[in-house]
User: Fold this.
Amino acid sequence: MTDQSPPGSPVRGLARGVALAAVAFIATLILLFGLVTLAGQTGGRGTTDASSTPAVPAATPASSATSSATSGAGGPSPGSASPGASPSSTASSPAVIPDPTLVGAGDIANCALDDDSATAKLIDATPGAVFTAGDDAYPDGTAKQFRDCYRPTWGRFLDRTRPAAGNHDWQTKDLAGYLGYFGAAAAPDGKSWYSYDLGTWHVIVLDSDCGSVGGCGSDSVQGRWLTADLAASSARCTLAIWHHPRFSSGEHGNDAEVAPFWRALYDAGADVVINGHDHDYERFAPQDPNAHPDRGRGIREFVVGTGGAALRTFPTTAANSELRTAVAHGVIRLVLHRSSYEWSFIPTTGEVTDSGSGPCH
Assistant:
């Protein structure tokens, strides 16, 4: 039915208002319905719900290469990418393992003196393996002297010490005080000589109290063991420690009884020898068994009898002696690299008085 009301009549105006209101109402419903639909399609965006978030894409080969080159301690193993890591993420560099150190001296503990306490403080500040070069407890190496004199000072490094015996340690029958204190570390195979590997180095500990161990010659029990041990080692670098020095400018001087040790080591291409016995510090140039300079194959010897016993002077100067000092107690520290070594003599006065480096043969 059509509207027959004349134009401008109240009835016609009312109808037009109702129609406009109806249109506005319908438009509003359409708009609200559209918003609700849109919200349903995008629900959860901006939340942390894993089911509604897009997956992180896998790392590309280029980003994997970057992670491999920079990964290390505290992160994934080298060559692996972290799960969910973005292509730009990197890990820390691998931790560098330092080369091993060996620190020590000979002629150490005496209850009548306190210089062993001073050298022990030097080792407190030096990590790594500890050696002794004999005469560890004065004057007779008794169990009491090890307990009362050695233990309060150098004894605190017992768990990292590889000892060598000296003539004062042998003052007690059968080396009982020394062996009783150090235990298996001093005689792992039931003998007072042994060897071990430290990093890539082979370290040999010998007993130079030749009269007490059946001799030091090449045909003695210890001599045959030394030859076999050297032959069995595949290490490029070799270091030996015993008490009596083959060459020395100190009070005791050269000791010919240990010449077979030097010969066997030289023939096997050994690099370094450390001794005690003379209460001083002395460094020698590399030399052969006959005390001839030999920079190519010779053994460098250090005499380090400065662990705590009273120091002594130098009555002479031995061939190839490069440096001598007896003004302060101290320890020698060696850093054992894969094909070389560094040394430093650290005195109790606090200033390094000798240092250097050398290659392995």
The chain has seven helices and 13 strands. The chain has two domains: 62-95, 101-359.
